Predict the 3D structure of the following.
Amino acid sequence: MIEVRNLSKRYGNHLAVDDVSFDAQAGEIVGILGPNGAGKTTIMRILTGFMPPTSGTAKVAGFDVMEDSLEVRKRVGYLPERVPLYPDMTVREYVTYWAKLRGVKGAKEQVSAVIERVQLTDRRDSLIRNLSKGMRQRLGLAQALVHNPQVVILDEPTIGIDPQQVIEVRDSVRQLGQGHTVLFSTHILSEAEQVCDRVVIINNGRVIAEGDPARLRAQLQPGEHLFVLIGGASDADARRMLERIPGVENVEAQGKGFNLRARPNTDIRPAIFEQVTRAGYVLLELRPVAMTLEDIFLDIVGKAG
Ligand SMILES: Nc1ncnc2c1ncn2[C@@H]1O[C@H](COP(=O)(O)OP(=O)(O)OP(=O)(O)O)[C@@H](O)[C@H]1O
Ligand SMILES: [Mg+2]
């Protein structure tokens, strides 16, 4: 459904996208994962026909994004990084405006249906200025869905909203996978893991890895990270004990406890439990730490340097 081949984009001297290729099959949710400045937005803007690539090709539903950009736009819904919203319009007026702009037939029913789909029916007559950030994000999603596109492209839809609303937006994205092909960008690995069938990891404009998210995490993450909170020991004693546990590579203070990094493929939890108990301390907390992609990059870079 999406076919990207050897895509490059140069801004002046800066190569923002460098020979990128990937596919998204019909009904698939594909994540574009990468840190700030990786080139995610640039790729998405090329795919939506808003900007020409410097070289390479991209097709959506069989149409070339440059040669058939009108056909592409009919079939693509796009939620940009910053959604242009009009604060003095109501939810319904805004979605109706987009429905008309896109020539949607039976606009009235379609507008109601799409507002229901993003769970804004009870706010349909509210002014946009009075919506929460998460609601605005869902309204942006309604704008992207109003013409019932085959392909939906979402540029970091969970950025800057509170945790509860992040969960709601992720749920909406997952549901979109039934009936649409979804391309979704994020810089949070665990988010890609929760939402996507497949992930394409981009760094400095290049694809550095691609595949099933859980497998990629295992590949990229150099050992598991754990948070440990110990009672009955001074910080110095707790640290000394943790550092002596075989398989522990790194101990870092984190609040009242410690973040540990284990050697790859090593489960250090039994040893932690045993050592803490033997020393007569109390294990108050022991849990895995979810890492963002940036953490992992920093980790890899830190180890190399
Ligand atoms: N219009 C532009 N003119 C010049 N350089 C640009 C332009 N747009 C983006 N860039 C540069 O291209 C690179 C990729 O930018 P892009 O916005 O695609 O990255 P991104 O992965 O979306 O980043 P973020 O996570 O911050 O949104 C960055 O170095 C950026 O500074
Ligand atoms: Mg971006």
Summary: The chain has a mean pLDDT of 90. The pocket of adenosine-5'-triphosphate (ligand 1) is lined by residues 11, 14, 16, 34, 36-42, 81, 187 (CB under 6 Å).
